[in-house]
TrEMBL record:
Transmembrane parts of this sequence: none
Domain of life: Eukaryota
Keywords per UniProt: Nucleus, Transcription, Transcription regulation
Name the UniProt record assigns to this protein: MED27 polymerase
InterPro entries (UniProt xref): Mediator_Med27 (IPR021627)
Compartments where found: Nucleus
Keyword Transcription attached: yes
Length: 172
């Protein structure tokens, strides 16, 4: 095993680092696309971007990015605190509400779905379009069963292509 490991070339990481002003410009353009979504941009350690996305009076999402690549997303209720005790954005604590914990899980799945390393700005725009589909989280019925609640929860899944709402058990 040692001999074959020596012959194998080492794989170099292929992360594309874009200038911060380019990232700011892309985020600004996305913010203008959706008037019911406000996007605040923070740079806690210089180059990395953290977005605080407020979607109407429904939810707040913290989107942690490296350049234009989304690392993680935390979704909380509109009235939930998104700041830690030291006044910085709390990128680790989950929501107190099961509905927003589910949306956070679905957002993580969406990050895996929207992968196109050659066009990171399209990925961010697609993800934000998907996230914006939650504007009617508590008003849209499930497209399969037609109910507004199932097990006490609204339809938290959004189809990646059509953006239609489904309960977890109805999406198969």
């Amino acid at each position: 095993m040692g001999a074959s490991a020596k012959r194998r070339p080492k794989v170099q990481p292929t992360t594309l680092v874009l200038p911060p002003h380019y990232v700011d410009d892309v985020i600004s353009r996305i913010g203008r696309m959706f008037p019911d979504m406000s996007i605040e941009l923070f740079r806690p350690n210089g180059t990395s971007a953290v977005l605080l996305v407020t979607l109407g009076k429904v939810l707040k999402a913290i989107v942690v990015m490296r350049s234009l690549f989304i690392d993680r997303t935390i979704v909380r209720g509109f009235k939930e605190n998104v700041y830690s005790e030291d006044g910085k954005l709390d990128i680790w604590s989950k929501s107190n509400y099961q509905v927003f914990q589910k949306v956070t899980d679905h957002a993580t799945t969406a990050l895996l779905h929207y992968q196109l390393p050659q066009m990171p700005d399209v990925v961010v725009r697609s993800f934000m379009t998907w996230l914006r589909s939650y504007i009617k989280l508590f008003q849209a019925p499930c497209q399969r069963c037609g109910k507004y609640l199932q097990d006490g929860l609204p339809p938290t899944w959004r189809d990646f292509r059509t953006l239609e709402a489904f309960h977890d058990t109805c999406r198969q």
